[in-house]
């Protein structure tokens, strides 16, 4: 697997001239693991320079403190504007910084680029649209879940995610936990008839998933990432954050999610062409008490799509 990936990475980086059939051949092992396990790992995918530029952009966001930037305080369990985070909370709480891909090129380049976009297109089966980014300085310690619960795609399976390690991840820092093969569990149907979460029914969802995991003999694994590694997973892969055994340790990383171009066009999204795919232009996340959220400036090459007829 790794040798095939390294060959593919060299071809896309320009070391070798790659034909489309050659790229497809190199992608075959990655696609096979994706089909059977629900995830793929791209070891050492990004250079130190690319990673450091993205880390600098996160630092710049906290230094500039633009009023439209939004964070989630994972200790106080509340959403707020980055500019409203006080010094005590900044020093002692864990934060998730939302959607820096819309503001900083160095972050966006980790989400879409000439090497990654063809892989995402193959695994998603459609042209990818980068629709959000989540920047972490520490582990999430998040309960096991599937992304399709909360970001339910319009068309089944047309949502994927990537996790990029911005530093080596120590096992005591709360590494990513995942269940290989869990993407094959049939999605739970809530009382609404939808796969989209109904919060009051989550105990039933957990019971269903726990039963399926046990019945299928699925076991959790942890991703002991090295700086520059990329982990790609299906929207239906069960995953979460391992316990943070040492709160002093960081786990700098960024997560990206992608819908398909077709689903985004059908929903009237504004798309910006970028590196063989698109990124979604939209307002930042709403914060209670602050009215309509602000969007970044609209790029001149943005594609404003119309709602498709039903």
**Rg on CA atoms, Å:** 19 Å
| Morphology call | globular
Mean pLDDT across all amino acids: 91
Distance between the termini: 43 Å
Separate helix tally: 8
Q: H/E series, N to C?
A: HHEHEEHEHHEEEHEEEEHEEE
Would you mind describing this structure in some detail?
With 310 residues, the protein is of the alpha+beta class. The protein has a single domain (24-304), classed as q2cbj1_9rhob like domain (Jelly Rolls), CATH 2.60.120.620. 29% of the residues lie in helices and 21% in strands. It is built from eight helices and 14 strands. The strands form two sheets. Strands 1, 2, 3, 4, 5, 6, 9, 11, 12, 13 and 14 form an eleven-stranded mixed sheet that branches. A hairpin with a 2-residue loop joins strand 12 and strand 13 (277-281). Helix 1 (2-13) packs antiparallel against helix 2 and helix 3 (48-64) packs across helix 5 (105-111). The longest helix has 18 residues, at 20-37. The model is unreliable at 1-19 (pLDDT under 50).
